[in-house]
Amino acid sequence: MLGTMFEDRRGEKRLFRGRAILLAVLVVLSLALIAARLFQLQVVRHEHFTTLSDDNRIKIQPMPPTRGLIYDRNGVLLADNVPSYALTIEPEKIEDIDATIAELSELVPISELDLERFERLLPQRRRFEGVPIRLDLNQAERARFAVQGHRFPGVEIAAELSRYYPEGAYTSHLVGYVGRINEQELEQIDRSDYAGSNHIGKVGVEKYHEQWLHGHVGYQQAVVNARGRVLEQREQKTPVPGRDLHLFLDMDLQRDAAAALGDRRGAVVAIDPETGGVLAMVSSPRYDPNPFVGGIGYKAYAELRDDIDRPLYDRAVRGQYPPGSTVKPFIALAGLATGVTTASQGKYCGGYYQLPGHSHRYRCWRRGGHGSLAMEDAIVQSCDVYFYRLAHDMGIDRLDDLLAEFNFGRPTGADIAGELGGLLPSPEWKQRTRNRPWFPGETLIVGIGQGAFLATPLQLAAATAAIANGGMFIQPRIVSATRASLGAPLEPTQAQRRPIPDQDPAHWQTILDAMTNVVEGRRGTAGRIRTDAYRIAGKTGTSQVFTVGQNETYNEAEVAERMRDHALFVGFAPIEEPRIAVAVIVENGGHGGATAAPIARAVMDSWLLDQRVQAPGDADDGNSP
Fold it and tell me: Could you tell me if 229 and 250 are in contact, meaning their C-beta atoms sit under 8 angstroms apart?
């Protein structure tokens, strides 16, 4: 029995010894692995982990660039960066934010819009970062807070640059405005270049030239603690400010064009025929762009959005209207260029035109007709029947080809966001969009600028400028030059130029003589704007808002105001050396010679004679289209 006990103890010792040896081996291996890992971390990958450590301690902070300024041709500031003061709340220093805001509201006004913006930004910021509760503090509000600020630990006044438009509504559609970057824009921009930037161009020049205006972000290294608070500033890369833009626009002319148009719905576009520079571009009614910079309130935006007159709508580049009789000089030039007619060949107008084999009458604006007319008189008196016949003789394909040379049917390519291209109808377009064939009568309607034919005021001005300069279509330009920084040289922009194919001087002279007599001739439809100070060439137009039935008569007095015809005029001056080409559209304005032409004359007087403009009253003799 003693032997058995002795053997059990020896077995237990061997088992213990074996386990101890195994444990020792495991400990040694573990220590070896730890040592190897430490060697790898401390020696082999020392540089890597030092970098990671620095990344946790040193943060790269973006330094947003200063946005470029915008000037008119004479150095008038159109878009500025002004100091803006915001009241900010640092959440980590405040126990009861709601109570603090309630007390602050007794010191400075805080609106529902301010509260909405604060609540939206609060979860997006770190607790030690200031969140704006009120923007654009005025001097009195800043003074009141300076006196009472000690009562509000964690509340400070922060200064930043904010966009400001000194000319307000006068340049709202052309210059546009900036606003806070939204989610859709965030997906489209280079986020690294917009780090630290909150605003981006939304419409107009501000949007089109965003790349120039924004500049490039800079960076600075900052030592931060575990919570991300900045402890020390290190190296920095200076941001590149946005380029300043100098426009062809003349603010005196812009104001005068706006005054001439008055409170009517419509647009005025004035272009330099030699450079393609946009001298004035007005869309009416207008709006103040400044509230959009900081974030316009829902109620205020809804009032603009739902306004029946659509002040947010840029009629100059997005308004698409039947051009009416303003295209007759272009149609006539097409007839000459294609050899379908000559300047002296007469066509008879008996008050209506019928296609061979059809009973439908396509009426002239003068119900009794004009008799036999050659081309010049047909343009001067704006005879519809002459152009019905001419369009039918040419056919839609040849007609479209030459109208396209004047850039009808597609955007001009002007450097402004949102431009539309109008519509130059064709058999292919109709088949593609309506799945129906083209009818001969539709060619007649295109011949007088009606039906599906649509053009913008900018297109009409650019096409008229091409007639003024003798056959060169110049891409309209708004920006004349850019500047990298104050004191740097101006760098001019370049406009694309292309000649209109028909360069027969006799053809262009025929059109010029006809457009001159529209204003100066005894029967011209724009005779009321004739002046001895300089000579004007032009063409009036009236475009229908709705179709008048075959056996019906259009009586303007019995038609609702918003269903009346649009009034149009295109022209240039002086005839000898054209310096300005103008297109005017007045929605529901009636006759072009009575309503639109005087507006164009006022704009020309402003540019050529430096005469300031008073908004004229509506006038209409009812005698011309």
Answer: no
